[in-house]
Specification:
The complex is a heterodimer of chains A (about 500) and B (about 300).
Chain A lengths: L2 E2 L15 H9 L18 E2 L6 H10 L4 H16 L21 E2 L13 H9 L2 H8 L2 E6 L2 E7 L1 H5 L3 E4 H7 L1 H7 L10 H9 L4 E5 L9 E6 L6 E2 L2 E6 L4 E9 L7 E3 L2 E6 L4 E8 L5 E11 L4 E8 L4 E4 L2 E4 L5 E10 L4 E10 L5 E10 L4 E10 L6 E11 L5 E10 L4 E11 L2 H8 L5 H17 L4 H16 L4
Parallel strand pairs in A: 1-25, 4-8, 7-10, 8-11, 9-12, 10-13, 11-14, 12-15, 13-15, 14-16, 15-17, 15-18, 16-19, 17-20, 18-20, 19-21, 20-22, 21-23, 22-24, 23-25
Antiparallel strand pairs in A: 2-3, 4-5, 6-7
Helix pairs in contact in A: 1-12, 2-3, 3-9, 7-8, 10-11, 11-12
Chain B lengths: L20 E10 L2 E11 L4 E5 L6 H9 L4 E10 L2 E2 L5 H6 L2 E4 L6 E5 H13 L2 H16 L10 E2 L5 H15 L3 E5 L7 H14 L5 E6 L3 H5 L4 E6 L2 E6 L1 H10 L2 H9 L26 H4 L6
Parallel strand pairs in B: 3-10, 3-11, 6-9, 9-10
Antiparallel strand pairs in B: 1-2, 1-4, 4-5, 7-8, 11-12
Helix pairs in contact in B: 3-4, 5-6
The chains are: A alpha/beta (about 500), B alpha/beta (about 300).
The complex binds adenosine-5'-diphosphate and magnesium ion.
Chain lengths: ~500, ~300
Amino acid sequence: MATDIEVTSKELAIHVDPNRERLLREAEKELPLEYSAGWSDPEAYFFKSGRGVSRETVEMISRMKNEPAWMLDRRIKAYDHFLSRKMPSWGADLSEINFDEMYYYIKPASEQGKTWDDVPQDIKNTFDKLGIPEAERKFLAGVSAQYESEVVYHSLREDLEKLGVIFTDMDSGLREYPEIVKRYFGTVIPYKDNKFAALNTAVWSGGSFVYVPKGVHVAIPLQAYFRINAKNAGQFERTLIIADEGSYVHYIEGCTAPIWSEDSLHSAVVELIAMKDATIRYTTVQNWSNNVYNIVTKRAVAHENATVAWIDGNLGSKVTMKYPAVYLLGRGSKAEIVSAAFANQGQVQDAGGKVWHCAPETTSTITSKSVSKGNGRTSFRGWLKIYKGCVDSVSAMRCDAMLLDKECRSDTYPTIEVDEEKVALGHEATVSKIGEEELFYLMSRGLSEREAITQIVNGFIEPFTKTLPMEYAIELNRLIQMQMDGAVG
Amino acid sequence: MVAAPATNAPVHQSPAGGATLAIRNLHVNIDSREIIHGIDLTVNKGEVHAILGPNGSGKSTLAYALMGHPRYAVTSGEVELKGEDLLAMSADERSRNGLFLCFQYPTSIPGIQMGNFLRLAMKARFGDAAIKTFRKELTEKLRILKMDESYMRRYLNEGFSGGEKKKAEILQMALLKPEIAIMDETDSGLDVDAFKVVADGVNAMRGPDVGFVVITHYNRMLEYIKPDFVHVLIGGKIVKSGGPELALAVDQHGYQPILEELREQGVEIELMEEAGATYAREEPTEREHDPFRSHGLTGL
Ligand SMILES: Nc1ncnc2c1ncn2[C@@H]1O[C@H](COP(=O)(O)OP(=O)(O)O)[C@@H](O)[C@H]1O
Ligand SMILES: [Mg+2]
């Protein structure tokens, strides 16, 4: 029998900046109270494919990118698989996605900018408004900005470049480092993984390629920012991160889109490979507008003593389905999957995490915090598998859901399969409402009802927020406040 | 059945005219059962009123009703705070207007840091200007209450010992500078040292700008905080009021002589036997055994 849990593991919280609290508070004063990234730019694109996807579309994308034959071959196989594969029968309702309406490839500019000034004015303005160049100057080691299907700008600090760190868009990665890409592309997520992984493999464009050499510690984060602009746009970026032995990297992604009444589709594939003793920390603050289907496949492999942390915040989108996963392949490897979701009126956040323990002395934690408001729905899906022989492994799964209204809903679907007896397991799920006593206590100290509820919700999410660098914690608090204030039917 | 006792709170007039807190014939229901059967009490700034009474007599119910807890329904009577209708205000308005309740069982709320919470409360009560002097004031109050700075980074009351919770209540009271402060058994469950610190904290606040309602069933508290007026609350009514000597009498002889005296006057008192010990706002269960918190994991 599995024994009860006694888990210790590396603390994920970020406590670096002593001024964190003060800065967080100051930032709160300037909160805009509605979806503030909802503007759109006029379409002045270098190239835009027709609606729908076909074998020709796939070939055309590959041809425009001048790809090696193996990649075209892979795309075609994936496309065939996409056609033959049924839509998932579980999870969120995807029946309204109209694959024939979407634009699968939009190239905004003829080439990538070397500096921000090279980026077309409208697009540059958009990223300025989103604060990307400013963030790059202030606290990032590198930036990648994707607009529609292509990365329009990317940068990496020179000192990191000299150390051999590679941070570029996936298309350039394929051109400039063909062997590495060929060796690892699709190894963590084969196109047969699921229908959307197949679609991504068929029409992928953009995304990041990151390689961190042995022993290199990239102390400050790399960030990728994804922006969808056009109506009915599909964005299919493809990211591959390889952290070589003993290295460390923190990669952060953010995203927004205009508010259209037509749906858009964001379907990314992200593969992480953490070699022996390496650590990859992958943080997402997802803030798509409420017309975006966000269906993303994220998986990692962790070799001996490696650590992979998926930190996944989902606030935006119409429907999100995303379950970051880790295959613990090496002895002593660790997985931490921390997610937070906020489902407001009309939103479905179907999230969670999966871990496969394939070696002894491996550790995993899957934790989720979700808040539902209005008729919003959150679901947590946790998957845990411990194979026979993975002795002394430890795993804990926990999900806490908070319901703010009568109409909203939260479901939990944990699946736990353990074939080894000498392991320690913990599993817990809670559902709560805002307690009358908590509310009264805060109000008796002068906080208005709305303030008190926001505080309680922020407090509930806080274990997630504190895993974020300060700038992102500010963003998250702002987004939550916005959700709290937004009018709800 | 309860009949009105002959004695009642003496009427005190504040120098400015109207009383700071004036309670008239207050009736309170919990879940449509009447718990408070008509209370009159007048409290002015500068005064300390003690309310004594056995367990289950309705002391906390009175306190919660005054603070505006939604479950405590006022069915009749009037309450004025500085001449304004207290009962028409929401709990937060009551607080911002200068009423404060030291909870008998303070609620713990995970994820909200004490320091941030205090700052928000100060801002709610005094506006943005208060933020400027907040640090300085906080440091001073922490010193008086022998509390460590590290409190400020802990979650609101979470995992606090009984003594820590009570100190944290006094800290909030000291910062929010209420005009009327109700202290609900702030003295119970404290060891001698914590008790001394809490009592000193209250004494340091005492002065012409604040009126206290000190609910207790021990005389211990009243030896430190000398009350001007003492009221005995039994069966949802104030059955006797007097000066400090009344507290002494209760301490020495208990409530029995008072009950007998009332019986001689033909007044029947309904003692609420359950002694209020079985209700939801009893000490909430802590999350201490949560493996995710206690093993230094992600903290989730
Ligand atoms: N939350 C509650 N729900 C139902 N009844 C309650 C609740 N709290 C108190 N009561 C009732 O009110 C009476 C008075 O309780 P309380 O005001 O807590 O007394 P005291 O503070 O004087 O010990 C109790 O005896 C009990 O019958
Ligand atoms: Mg009580």
